[in-house]
User: Fold these one by one.
Assistant:
Number 1:
Amino acid sequence: MSHRVMAVAGLGSMGHGIALSLLSAGHTVYGADVNRDRVSRLVAAGGRDGTATVVSADIDTLVVVVLNAAQVEAVLFGAQGWVSRLKPGAVIIGSTTVAPDFARRMADQVEGAGLHYLDAPISGGAARAAEGRLSVMASGSPAAFAAAEPALAAIAETVHRLGDVAGTGSAMKAVNQLLAGVHIAAMGEALAFAVSQGLELGRVVKVISGSAGTSWMFENRAPHVVDGDYAPRSAVGIWPKDLGIVAEIAARAGLPVPMTETALARFRAAAEAGFGAEDDAAVTKIYAREGRLKLPGEP
């Protein structure tokens, strides 16, 4: 793989993992984040500080992994936006979960500025991001795919090529997020139900993980509840945004999504209760609180 100069905008759990994977593949990697501690952490791992405007002249690839559409737009087109500073022919890989219409608009504007844009949402979690084993749901022009190839090879175990037009990748990610969010909310409900029946949660996880009722989200998140460990791998606060995107897309299509709406209400309740910065397994606490149940690790 040829060496590239790359940057990652947004160094949360996923962005930091992506940056580490790019470093492991031998690329020069700049990191930018409003949280200076996150930038320092990447620099300590061998990356470079990407907040200074002068660093972008040689950057071939920018991966955007920020929280929402407003942040994407600010990163790309704000006062110090990357679009105005990247060299012609550079590629922007948009990996934030956004609505398909927004992804298409970003592609039009970026390509109008002489750059490439790949609509490339990601799935897999922070650990797989750091291991270069993400699943990427990507759509964009053949030229955008070609320009993004070195980065994709470093960060992804699987790249799903979903077409030549931006927006399709984001639509597929919305399908994934619908299922993932509903599964996490269902996991929380199931664990609270198990507690209400006097079952020991460690045994519940073992039995259900080998039974028909399991899901990847159950197997991944339920142990956090068993351990009373809510350090955020993926936070509660992400889901009101992601499931909100699903609900908005569905509303425009005239499609009822009652399970999405129910899960969305559960995550909103968890965020309003003060659990927004905790691991998304903390949605279980809402069920437990309403049922006056005690979860592992609680006094």
Note: The CA atoms of residues 120 and 138 lie 4 Å apart.
Number 2:
Amino acid sequence: MLGKLFLLFTVVPAVELYLLIQLGSVLGAGATIAIVLTTGLLGASLAKREGGRVFGEWQASLQRGELPKEGLVSSLLVLVGGIFLVTPGVLTDLFGITMLIPPARRAVAGVLNRYVEKRFELQPMTPAGFVGAAASQAWADATEGDADVDVIDVEANEKA
């Protein structure tokens, strides 16, 4: 974990600084600053537009009673992409633009979803909630072929 934090907060900014210095030596300080400001403004604009589009699709899907095509991870990547575009730097701008391109964002979201599923070994949900594989299998065995599973509807009253 310490290595990842070191990479994120020390190595990446050092590489970004190096690239900006190299860009400044080729284009000049004024042009480099103009590029950084332009990508920041463009990034904010693109993130707002793409975020609005994703949010609109979410609303439309939910109104139809469907799950949104773009999941939560994909939607969060739009936000992350916008943040990276506003952050000065060459690598952060490339990553930010990539996260605002729908096919690239969906690909990254798919990789992240598979990682989370493997990392946390997500189990199927039973009526009792998320449980381990053994309990999930026991529920499946108990209800297999039994169309007349008893359901008890309960209401709770909370006393103040």
Note: The longest helix spans residues 29-63.
Number 3:
Amino acid sequence: MAKYQQAGIASQYHRPYSLLNYFGHKLWHFSVRILGHIVPSFLARLLYRLWFVAPRFAFPDIEKSIRDQAHIQHLTINNRSITSYHWPGTGHQRVLLVHGWSGRSTQFVEIIKVLNMAGYHVHAIDFPAHGLSGGRTTNLYEMSEVLAHFIEDLGLLDAIITHSLGGPVAALALRDHPVANKVICISAPSSMDRLFQRFTDLLAIPNKITARIISLAKQEFGREIMRDLSLIVNIQALACPGLIIHDEDDHDVPFVNATELALHWPRAELLKTTGLGHHRILRDPEVIEKIRTFIPS
């Protein structure tokens, strides 16, 4: 259960490093330093390509159950094999779920249950290289293009609910297809600059290698890539109300992202939680109830 506006309990959710993890991190940092000194171009290209590989994780039993209740279609969008889900409701309101990097649509299992029980039609897709969709690599531009094609067919939506990198992806898609009455961003990174800095800090990547990686991205996608993909930029093009939900103990996407996003999104409400981290926030009853009551127009 969310504990709003409270602090000081994050430490109980940290698992201590095992010796294997400790020495694994030591070996990684040592390797990055050595390769960065000897073959910096090779290391930059390697890390750049790793950025597009989305690790897949097994479906827990609870997700298998909700997956089996969906009407599943296997679509081809932009020459990619995409899996879509529809949990039919009894009413007329429709909601779209947008998962994040290395995520999948069924991660919203508790949200799906509550909204479906309230009569909502719930739609979702697994992005390329995610969930039940095909492929091993993808990027945020491709994810956004796939989503744009999907929402174009769906038409007007009462709400879009996003998690993590699903926020920037959805905002980019909605920039040219404003089909949502409301947008809810859960645990979303506010900008690509902040997200990329987090990535390089966690992997202890030297500054000179970081600069090379950014250069490779600009060569492939254009010099404005950081601006193009930033949530705080694209969200300003949306006229609809928003809800930002973020946990102050989120160690994947720190809470400062939420405060920055709120500053750039004047029509959005900010809900801060404590002790839920980056993933449990999707299963918290109070968070889900807030989402349910926010959606009606």
Note: Confidence is low (pLDDT under 50) at residues 1-19.
